[in-house]
Prior knowledge:
Elements (H helix, E strand, L loop, with lengths): L12 E3 L6 E3 L3 E2 L15 H13 L4 E3 L8 H10 L7 E6 L1 E2 L7 E2 L3 H15 L4 E7 L13 H12 L3 E7 L3 H8 L4 E5 L10 H9 L19 H10 L3 H12 L12 H8 L8 H8 L2
Parallel strand pairs: 3-4, 4-5, 5-8, 8-9, 9-10
Antiparallel strand pairs: 1-2, 6-7
Helix pairs in contact: 1-2, 1-9, 3-4, 7-8
Bound molecules: NADP nicotinamide-adenine-dinucleotide phosphate.
The site of NADP nicotinamide-adenine-dinucleotide phosphate (NAP) has 27 residues, from helix 9.
Amino acid sequence: MNKTPTNATLGGSFTFPGTPWTIHRIGYGAMQLAGPGVWGPPKNPEGAADVLRAAVAAGVNHIDTSDFYGPHITNQIIQKTLHPYPAGLVIVTKLGARRPADKSWQPATSPQELTQGVHDNLRNLKLDALDIVNYRSMGSIHGPAEGSIAEQVTVLANLKRQGLIRHIGLSNVTATQVAEAQAITEIVCVQNNYNLANRQDDALIDLMASQGIPYVPFFPLGGFTPLQSSTLSAVATRLGATPMQVALAWLLHRSPNILLIPGTSSLAHLRENLAAGQLVLSQQVIAELENR
Ligand SMILES: NC(=O)c1ccc[n+]([C@@H]2O[C@H](COP(=O)([O-])OP(=O)(O)OC[C@H]3O[C@@H](n4cnc5c(N)ncnc54)[C@H](OP(=O)(O)O)[C@@H]3O)[C@@H](O)[C@H]2O)c1
């Protein structure tokens, strides 16, 4: 990055395996930049651009996005605001779904759809090659379901060989699917639904940590149902922080391979989220949060 991070450490750093890309553990998830229901343009386009610019200026060098968001709009905002991209910025996008006119989320998993999706992302982000593409298995909407993903991962591996994708990750997957994909190509990150209130992936996080692979929780703040609990609020008050900062700090403490991509359309919330890296949680506080 050209700029010195202003939020001290931004949660520390992590290197995507098999890449020279060392990023801050606190990044930014761009889904909230689209309009309501992740559809259409934002109510305040200049505000969306301000959030992106502020994130990068603060040292964020990991942005999570997708052409599903808008659709296409979020990537176009990223391109319009940040291109030419600062050195060291890693943009992670995802494939595997499409948004028909009824605004639903439908699988898009054929070789043609995945290939078209890569070209759409390249055009909308104005890139010659995508840094990381996550294959997002549709499973159930916010959770994985077993079933082979070999065909889709093979298509992405071929697009990687063609130079259109630099690295491949997975999203909304099981440990079995991760292992299946790893037999086909190197997997550099896994992005699943996980937060203080939703810990089904504890074993997968530890498995990924043992392999040096980052685990990137989506819905780190609860997504469409923001996290709230009396314990979270009580701890936050005691530490002079906000409940969302405590929730993010807990994730940073949970495992060193966890990378954060909290989503927000608000400059104030962005600043709050980035500052969560400065929050130190004692073992006692962690136990309190986990036993709530
Ligand atoms: N792989 C997948 O299937 C998948 C699925 C969902 C999301 N994602 C990715 O994961 C990222 C994070 O998920 P997400 O954005 O859905 O959910 P999230 O980060 O858990 O929460 C976002 C929600 O929390 C609010 N918020 C953010 N910071 C806040 C703060 N400091 N105080 C109070 N409210 C706050 C946001 O509203 P405001 O805008 O008002 O701040 C928004 O409503 C997304 O942006 C996207 O890149 C991936």
